[in-house]
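Researcher: Structure for this, please.
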Amino acid sequence: MIRATTAVLLWTCLVQLTALGDTWGPMVLKGWPSRETLSASALDVKLLPIVPARVLPPKRVYKNNGYLLISCNGGLNQMRSAICDMVAIARYLNVTLIVPELDKSSFWADPSEFEDIFDVDHFITSLRDEVRILKELPIRLKKRVELGLIHTMPPISWSDISYYHNQILPLIQRFKVLHLNRTDARLANSGQPFDLQKLRCRVNFSALRFTSQIEELGKRVVNLLKQKGPFLVLHLRYEMDMLAFSGCTQGCNDEEVEELTRMRYAYPWWKEKIINSELKRKDGLCPLTPEETSLALRALGVNSDIQIYIAAGEIYGGERRMASLKSTYPNLVRKETLLGADELGFFQNHSSQMAALDYLVSLESDIFVPTFDGNMAKVVEGHRRYLGFKKTILLDRRLLVELIDKYTSKLLNWDEFSNAVKDAHANRMGNPTKRLVIPDKPKEEDYFYANPEECFHPSSQNEPVNIIQ
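Model: Predicted structure, token format:
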């Protein structure tokens, strides 16, 4: 009985093992999966295209001389150019750069951090063959900073790289960590090593990429505009902060003049307080008003049915001041009119992120027209030159206000006025030109980021879109 029972059990086990062998045998003994038993889905997976891994530049190996902390000041584009300068300086001093701190105490009071506006990981990795960039100091050095064992200073404006080698580098080597608390316009425009100039461009045009959220929303705005044809971006800098800072009150009533004056005195770092608005305007130092802008665009022959995207914050005086411009160019749009409140909700009270959207749209426009040569106007101008000398109308404000005053006082008829404006701007369309260099007067010479000619490709000129009659 025992032998019989054992035989039955063994036979049963053999049958089960045989059945399992038909399923698992080929997989275990012949490798997984076998050619015969590959399913259709497995075959599909196997044939999917392989996504190539991102190729990063090799890390640059060098002796680290210390760490550089920087606190940017100003608006988005003022900080943008400063970051480019500081990366170049860190590279040439062989120091480690900590991701820049953005200005949160300026007029706009934007609480955004670097990573809220720029793709911080791309910024770090794309430049790793030039300079080592960290998100924060190592712990041992962070404790020194918390104890106040750090040297803080603003560098001298418009200095060349020898100043940083001779005066800044020894401080870094001595203190290990140096904090530069003002970084705008601290590196000279011209006369710098060619490789340094190229690196400034590389940071500006490649490494400083906006976050995916900002990039995607910018593309959406551009697509909405392109669906209706060519479009012009008007950087209308007739905003409260600019008028208060510059003291320009053309077209304002007495109550508005008083409000702007109060605001100017409220900011102690705005050093100029008593300003003659009329004289400043005649010298071309005021942003054009919406009324003056309307006349200038008409005189230049810009089609009245063109889409005009207003790249600016709230225009001072609101609809009342925009009435003349809107009557001449009814297709005025803003990001607030193109996008829903839900799409812009994330960016509310974040002026630098809003400015980033305007920046992206400005780059893609058929024509870009700034009404004042502030930081955004200059940096966008230079970026459009880099992209192929895209048409940028650089208004001669000093001449324009003179011609406008003659026209409005009937000293010129319309044809005389229009021809004079066109002649004056024939060579002010963002075409290739040499950067003006004035030794010992860096504030009066051409700004590097408005015309970074060391970085241009000779054959990169675009065919302009004709939206001017």
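Researcher: Any notable elements?
Model: The beta strands are 67-70, 96-98, 133-134, 151-153, 177-180, 231-235, 307-310, 332-333, 367-370. Residues 2-30 form the longest helix (29 residues).
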